[in-house]
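$ run holo --ligand "2-acetamido-2-deoxy-beta-D-glucopyranose" --emit tokens
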Amino acid sequence: MCELRVNTFLLLFFFFFFFILTSLIAAQNCPPVTCGSKSFNIRFPFLLQGNQNQDCGYHGFHLSCSSGSSSFLSETVLKLPNSGDFFVRDISYAKQRINLSDPRNCLAKRLMRLNLSDSPYSAAYVLNFMFLNCSSRNLGFRPNFGVIDCLSDGKNTVLAISSTFWASYMISSYSCMLIETVPVPVSWPMKEDDGYIVDLNDNKLQLSWGTPDCRDCEEDGGTCGLLNYTRQEIGCFNKKTGDSSGRKIARIVSLSITVPALMCSFGIAFSRCCRNREGSEGNGSNSSEQTALQPTVSMVGLSEETIQSFKKMELGQSRRVTGPNDIVCPICLSEYLPKEILRCIPECNHCFHAECIDPWLRMNRKCPLCRNSPCPNA
Ligand SMILES: *[C@@H]1O[C@H](CO)[C@@H](O)[C@H](O)[C@H]1NC(C)=O
Ligand SMILES: *[C@@H]1O[C@H](CO)[C@@H](O)[C@H](O)[C@H]1NC(C)=O
Ligand SMILES: *[C@@H]1O[C@H](CO)[C@@H](O)[C@H](O)[C@H]1NC(C)=O
Ligand SMILES: *[C@@H]1O[C@H](CO)[C@@H](O)[C@H](O)[C@H]1NC(C)=O
Ligand SMILES: *[C@@H]1O[C@H](CO)[C@@H](O)[C@H](O)[C@H]1NC(C)=O
Ligand SMILES: *[C@@H]1O[C@H](CO)[C@@H](O)[C@H](O)[C@H]1NC(C)=O
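-- output --
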């Protein structure tokens, strides 16, 4: 008698469980779609307007498929509230990142007017670029970095440079005008003194989003979707439970490694902080705040002594420079002349005019060409 009751209870329980499960699966009725010949899937939180139901996407994540001359040539279009239309190149649902491009192939121009407020997107990292307007006649040459072709014409050369050193160099040496300084979204963390290699001619803009956060669900192999459209509530459907238990174990293992590591680094930071406090006679509240905000200590250049210790040489009549070097100074782009003084960086043997490389090394520790550190211990 008692056994029977338990069995009925279990049966009811399983029935109820499966009912909930199937209703959850039924709620998720938004198969991924694509637009044009691009291979990426469009699915939650994104919604392709006209192809999917309203409740398949989250607010602010509506995409459209441009009506190209043929469906093959169609492009996925994202309209940013204050910045206009971009083409979507790629979406990473695991990292919540989206790659965009400018339909007219002049991303730099769009970046000068980019305004992400009122959109769910933000920049993963930001790097400041100085936009310079140089008279092509003053320049007399085409710089081998930073030229924005789509903003330049025969008379004026527009440069976008992330290094304050190079921007001020161009302003003082070639009377370039600063148009404005623009914070540009970049896909990995960079510092301004990392050099001038970052090129805005690549028609690629990477943005990320934080809400809705489907990362845990994606990681568990589930499908993220709306539970309630009016409340914009999200849920995770069809989780692969077997997989997730494996991941849980991996997570526990990684936690057991990262927690002690974190505590250890906290300990180190704390002891450093204490030492700072002792050094600055008690009031370290500001300095500790600064270190928390700026975990990467901004790099300073090499000491004068170190710079002077690097090999210097006077060019002979042959103007031949040894090592992996051209007959042109990579910094000022002028040809070497007899009797000019060059300085070479020991690690990589790259040489420059001494008067060009010395100011650089006072502000940077790395070779401007290969970005090797000349003196790892200096
Ligand atoms: C976007 O661009 C970055 C940088 O070029 C690249 O590493 C990434 O794979 C691209 N795709 C996504 C979805 O982020
Ligand atoms: C971005 O656009 C919003 C709304 O139009 C405006 O209020 C805001 O000032 C703009 N921000 C910048 C930096 O232009
Ligand atoms: C650069 O300056 C010239 C005149 O000095 C101006 O006509 C041109 O529009 C400027 N270009 C940009 C992109 O600001
Ligand atoms: C969604 O939320 C709204 C407002 O809270 C509620 O009125 C509605 O019944 C909910 N819909 C479903 C399907 O649960
Ligand atoms: C530390 O500085 C803050 C403000 O900068 C001040 O209010 C506080 O009294 C100072 N503490 C000591 C111990 O000097
Ligand atoms: C702390 O920083 C604030 C704002 O940056 C400044 O006004 C104040 O003088 C600083 N205090 C000390 C003790 O450095």
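-- notes --
Residues 18-27, 266-299 have pLDDT under 50 and may be disordered.
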